[in-house]
Write a structure and sequence with these properties.
Number of strands: 11
Helix content: 40-55%
Radius of gyration: 30 Å
CATH architecture of the largest domain: 3-Layer(aba) Sandwich
Strand content: 15-25%
Number of domains: 2
Largest sheet: 4 strands, mixed
Distance between the termini: 17 Å
Length: 275
Amino acid sequence: MDEYIESLKQRVNIVKKAVASAENDALHFPEGRMRVSQSGKQVRYYHVIPPAERSISPAAPKDYSGTYIRAENIELAKRLAQKDYNESFLKTARDEIRILEFSIRSLLQKNTDMVYRQLDPRRQRLVVPYILTDELYEKQWKDQVFRSNPFMPEGKIYDTRNGEKVRSKTEAILADMFLELGIPYHYEKALMLNKGRVRYPDFTMLKIKTREEIYLEHFGLLDDEGYRNKCLHKLDEYRNNGIFPGKNLIITYESSESPFDILGTRKMIKELFRV
C-alpha cells in the first residue's frame, strides 16, 4: 500500500509540473480558434475569431467560417491546435489532481494494511493477515527454506557480515553491500528453468516495494576464455527463460584490466532498488 500511495504522489507531482507548463503557455496563444474541414484527402485549416475574443471592435462583421490558413503560415495552425488542446488538458489535469489528492488523503487515513498494523502486538502474533504487509512479506521471504548450490561447498571460504560463506572476495563485498542497503537476498538459491533445468544465481534479491525477485550474476574470471563462454551460455539460458539484463537480472564483472567497480555497483544497486 505504501508503494501505491507513493506512486499516486509521484503522479500528482508529474501532473502539477505539466499544469504549470500549460498555464504558462496559455498566456501566449493567439486569439481565436481553429476550424478544420476536409474534402477527400485534402485537409484545410481556418482561423476563426469570435467577436468576444477580437481585439478590434466587437461590432465588426462576424466571422464564423474563418480565414484560410495557408501552408506558409502553418505555425499559426499549430499554435491554435495547441491552444485547444491546452484548454482541454488543463481542465482534465486539474480534475485528476483533485481526485488523486483526495485518494491519497483517504488512503492515508484508512487502508486495509492499517487494520493489521494497528492490532495490539500480542494479537498480531495470533493473526494471519489477509494481505501481507511489506514487513511480513520480507520476513517470510527471508525465512524460506531453499535448495542451495551443492557444487564444491568447500569453495565457500569468505565470510559475510550476514553470517554466510561465499566463494569470492567480491561476492562477500556484494553481500555486505546488500545488507548495508537493507536489500534482502539469498546466496546461490536454486532457480528452476524450463525443461527442469536448475541454475544457482550468485544472488537472488527481493525488491520489497514491488515484491519482485531480481537475480545477480558476478562474472569474475573474464580473462579465461572457457569461463567467458560459459557466462555467455548462461545469459542465453536466462534470456530464454524470461530473465533479462536491466529488467530482472543484474550483471557485475571483473578482469585483470577491469577491476570490480564497488562505487559504481553500489550506485547502480541503489538506483535500481530505490534505496
